[in-house]
Specification:
Blueprint: H1 3-23, H2 27-30, E1 38-39, E2 44-48, E3 51-59, E4 67-74, E5 82-88, E6 96-103, E7 112-126, E8 129-146
Length: 147
């Protein structure tokens, strides 16, 4: 399987599991982000031909499993979130840029204000499962522009 779809699938799985974790947080996932770990979202995103591109920065420390920067978008008037890809993070304590691109159903989004959530999530091995451990989350209103 090519790397990009695998990362997208992993990010989507992590977002789904984050929803379950938010409903019943465990001590590991409910812990606040360490001051040295963060994720930000740029104030402007792009959309073209049904694709949405979001970006920002992140900083993380090493973990036991792969760490992803995932993102989702929704209209302010809707509770439905649409995944916008995932990026494999380099957790070396330095600040890095991330950029995720994904498609949303036709007609769902238009240029203008949207709400974005970005999460820095480790897929930590726990037996035969990968358990999501959230390192940082950012909620940001973003302006989508065409192009």
């Amino acid at each position: 399987m090519p790397v990009r779809p695998a990362l997208g699938a992993a990010a989507g799985s992590a977002l789904l599991l984050l929803g379950f974790a938010a409903a019943a947080p465990s001590p590991a996932s409910a812990a606040p982000a360490a001051p040295s770990e963060s994720v930000t979202v740029d104030a402007e995103g792009r959309m073209a031909d049904g694709s949405v591109t979001l970006s920002g920065t992140y900083r993380c420390l090493g973990g036991d499993g792969p760490v992803l920067v995932s993102s989702s978008v929704n209209r302010p008037s809707s509770d439905t979130h649409y995944s916008v890809g995932g990026t494999l993070a380099v957790c070396d304590g330095k600040e890095h840029r991330w950029e995720n691109t994904g498609t949303v159903p036709a007609g769902v989004l238009e240029a203008g204000r949207v709400h974005v959530e970005a999460a820095l999530t480790e897929l930590s091995p726990s037996g035969v499962l990968l358990v999501p451990v959230v390192h940082a989350v950012e909620h940001q209103d973003v302006t989508l522009v065409e192009g």
